[in-house]
Amino acid sequence: MIFSRSASPLEKISQELRIDLLDMIYRSGGGHIGGSLSSLDLITTAYFSDIFNFKKDHFILSAGHLCPSLYVVLARLGFFHKKTLATYSSFGSILQGHVSSGVPGVEYSSGSLGQGLSFACGLALGDKNNRTICLTSDGEHQEGQIWEAVLFAKKYKLGNLINIVDYNGYQIDGKTSDIMPLGNLAAKYVQFGWTVTAVDGHDFNQLQNAYKKAQNSDYPNCIIAKTVLGKGISFMENNCQYHDVKNLPENLFHKALLELKTT
């Protein structure tokens, strides 16, 4: 089986969202599908597990190209009509290939990778009564600005900040370990004074427990979530060709759709 079964009710939601995501990217002619599929369970857990209240708490997608995963979640929650997904990346649509604050439910307009964690630090510092979650990617940690934000969060004791890392091991040109190795990322965060939890990024029980644990920390929190690029679609999994797909052939779309509907 492509999906590992779990007892969590979030599994069904995630599977349905994967179908929405695949359909949206196929009909638009392209998008960053690999990382969107790897990060979807991280976002699904944050929004659907009743741990956070996003009328007050903040969610920042630093890796803005992973926005298809956030779009399908926000549509399901009613931030905008699901029909809007059909306009993804088209001229004049609010749903572009990188997330922006013009989308209902979104506070951050993404730019170059590495900037979102700094923005999240500012939110966490200015609103210490509520939580700020930032989703970054592993490849994003090759950017120096990430580490400036990591230092800032420790200095200002941002215990209300959670950085969850989508650690799928790939970036646009191949394996992260080949392009610019990160070493022991968890040990780095610990040395910088953060609380660190490592989880299976597709295990909803582990993710929920990690989010709950992070709520009760006196230090900034990093959750390193080991994920699978292209999760849920066999021919996309761990294949950097699907970091960003253009004009997915109809036969592959139907093959992927069948896999998602039968797992």
Explain what you see.
The protein is an alpha/beta fold. The protein has one domain: Thiamin diphosphate (ThDP)-binding fold, Pyr/PP domains (Rossmann fold). Helix content is 40%, strand content 14%. A 5-stranded parallel beta sheet has the order 2-3-4-8-7, with helices on both faces. The protein has a two-stranded antiparallel ribbon with strand order 1-9. A two-stranded antiparallel ribbon has the order 5-6. Strand 3, helix 5 and strand 4 form a beta-alpha-beta unit. The radius of gyration is 17 Å and the shape is globular. The N terminus is likely disordered.
Offer a few descriptive terms.
263 residues; alpha/beta; Rossmann fold; 5-stranded parallel β-sheet; two-stranded antiparallel sheet; 9 strands
Helix and strand run? HEHEHHEHEEEHHEHEEH
Instruction: Report the top-level CATH class.
Output: Alpha Beta
In CATH, what is the homologous superfamily? Thiamin diphosphate (ThDP)-binding fold, Pyr/PP domains
In one word, what is the shape? globular
The number of strands is 9
Secondary structure elements and their pairing?
Layout: H1 10-28, E1 30-31, H2 33-48, E2 58-61, H3 67-76, H4 116-126, E3 132-137, H5 144-155, E4 161-167, E5 170-171, E6 174-175, H6 176-179, H7 185-191, E7 195-200, H8 204-215, E8 221-226, E9 245-246, H9 250-262
Parallel strand pairs: 2-3, 3-4, 4-8, 7-8
Antiparallel strand pairs: 1-9, 5-6
Helix pairs in contact: 1-2, 1-3, 1-9, 2-3, 2-8, 4-5
Short recap of the structure:
The protein has 263 residues and is of the alpha/beta class. It has helices at 10-28, 33-48, 67-76, 116-126, 144-155, 176-179, 185-191, 204-215, 250-262; strands spanning 30-31, 58-61, 132-137, 161-167, 170-171, 174-175, 195-200, 221-226, 245-246.
